[in-house]
Amino acid sequence: MSLGSIFLLALLEGLVSASVLALTASGLSLVFGIMRVVNVAHGEFFMLGAVIAWFVSHWVGGPPAVAFVLALGVAPLVVGGIAALADTLVLKRLNYEPEATIVATIGLLYILQQGALSLFGPNALPVPAPFDLRLQLIGFGYSGYKLAVIAAAVVILLSLWLILTHTRIGLVMRATQIDRNTARAFGINVDRVYAMVFAMGAGLAAIAAVLIVPIQQAHYLMGADPLLLSFSVVIIGGLGSLRGTVVAALLIGMVDQVIPIFLPVVLPDYGAYFTPTLAKILATLVVALVLVFRPQGLFGKRHA
Amino acid sequence: MRDMKAFFLHLAVLAALLAALPLLSAYHVTNVAKIMVLAVYAMGYNIAFGYTGLLSLGHALFFAAGLYAAGMGISQFGLGSAGALVAGPVAGGLIAAAVGLLALRTAGVAFMIVTLMFAQAGYLTVLYFVRYTRGDEGIVLDRAARMLGGVDLSGDTPRYLLAFALFAVALLVNLALVRSPFGRVMIAMRENEARSRMLGYNPYTVKLTALVVSGVYAGAAGAAYAVLFGYVGASLASVQYSILPLLYVLLGGAGTVLGPLLGALLMFYLIDYASSATSAYQFIVGAVLVVLVLFAPKGILGTLRERGLRWLP
Fold first, then answer.
1. Residues in Cβ contact with B115 at an 8 Å cutoff, skipping those fewer than 6 apart
2. 0.85 surpassed by complex ipTM
3. Which of A199, A210, B64, B268 could form a disulfide with A80 if both were Cys (CB 3.0 to 4.6 A apart)?
4. Cα(B224)–Cα(B231) distance, integer angstroms
5. Measured between beta carbons, which residues in chain B are less than 8 angstroms from residue A106?
6. B293, closest residue in chain A (CA to CA)
7. B289: contact with A, CB 8 A cutoff
8. Does residue A304 lie in a domain region?
9. So where does this one cross the membrane (chain A) (predicted)?
10. Which residues of A touch B57 (CB under 8 A)?
11. What residue of B is the nearest CA neighbor of A275?
């Protein structure tokens, strides 16, 4: 393979992981932006989406495409329902007090993870892709499904942006974000908005998981990586800013995929030391330092 | 009078722990020794979270610092058990100081995430240096390495007694600390940072000091874990071990001296009992966390203190 082909391959792989990450992180960012809630269980909503996709594909016969489309509808609905329930039963009663909320979502993380383990077992669960298409690019064949994932993510993110900026429901959400007491005074049912936002955030993670699961397989412990990556994205992009989230997801998704593919090619000798673990260590430290020294994110403006 | 009452209560708890040794079966002797070590860890966590209001999600880093300082000190650098027990708290305190210098520039939610990320980086570092730390498999310290003054620490009774000694010192120091003027300043930081600052206390130095003390406790517990139980593995540096002391402290009562012991004792046996009945012990951990923040945010001793036992420190 020529260097150009390797570069193109790395770019595509980076785009795939960036799209899924952008979807997952936008859910986290939405919840933080509007509700000021840091949801530690976000990765488990992602995992539930993947596991439900497996469940649907396992029990629905017929061509994989039918089951997949069904999963794409069922997973965010079920996961969103669980999230709305958790919001109403737990988070609302805590009055969204930040520290209590984090502890509660840690509890939720354990409950959901154990639930998935008890119901679906410890094995990785494969889900067939809805279609099998290989595109011949310069020098290598590439999965058409992966390109479809990128396209789907773009469409969903655009719809999310349109909902937030051009619909009544988006207006209500933004009003609640800016000042929930005034919103309540204007007759907005803030409790329902919060439950809906929490469900939407979880649903976005579930959709992202359904999209990636034909590439990655479903597993009850798969939530940890998307959680940490989403945190990083939301921090780098500026807490609660959707545009910053998408830009940061592109950056992190690219770096996450391009470095492991490219580095052994460029620096064959360093491969033994510069492992993915070291890359993760450095990335984690960089994100922590961004939060310490630039809490508004790399792309955000500083304001109170 | 109130001071004496509190002091005697804590002495009575220590006496009860010592008196329990000949009454317990070998199985429970091992368990209670482990609980006392974990309670020291939770007491350290309580100094930061319960008294100073610093909710950290990264204390596993300080515990692991002590654990690996002791374990690798023994296995790689030929340190004795006594040296390892000194190296642990020193390492815990140093790492806490380094983390605190950076993380204390943030507060609230950002502080939680920064400490979580530092601890994650620490956990990954343990995995990265797998050649020296043996990663998940861990370092197993053999009996010969776990001698202290001619006593074999892998035996049930010496192990219990050393855990008890560490716990007793930690408890009395904790009691003295929270009743000292500095302890009052810590609580003032938790209750109202702006007002304490106005009174002339520097929040940054007070919090940093509290975090370092907390790190020393966690490091001491980590070193004791390594020496007493002979196992030093990456799982003990994972995020679970940052959540555990939070769980113990919330259950027993944040901002109470005996809360960490009570929380560790109850939670340890709850998990022990649950894992014999079902495999779903994580479910218990999650449910306890949710139920506590919902219905008993002050924990057991915190609630008792509110309902009459006002003198409880």
1. B56, B57, B58, B59, B61, B99, B103, B242
2. no
3. A199
4. 11
5. 243, 246, 286, 289
6. A100
7. yes
8. no
9. 6-33, 45-61, 67-90, 102-125, 145-164, 193-213, 219-239, 246-267, 273-293
10. 102
11. B128
Q: Residue B296 has what pLDDT?
A: 80
| Minimal Cβ distance to B285: which of A104, A110, A277 | A110
pLDDT at B171: 92
d(CA B219, CA B41): 8
DSSP, collapsed to helix, strand or coil, labels residue A127 as: coil
What is the domain range of residue A178? 3-293
Query: Does any CB of chain A come closer than 8 Å to the CB of residue B113?
Result: yes
pLDDT in tens, A104-125: 998 999 999 998 888 888 888 8
CB atoms A111 and B283 under 8 Å: yes
Residues in chain A with CB shorter than 8 Å from the CB of B120 are 228, 284
The domain tally of chain A equals 1
Shortest distance between the Cα of B70 and any Cα of chain A, in A, equals: 23
The CATH number for A74's domain is 1.10.3470
Measured CA to CA, the distance from residue A42 to residue B24 in angstroms comes to 43
Cβ within 8 Å, pair B114-A288? yes
In a domain, A299, yes or no: no
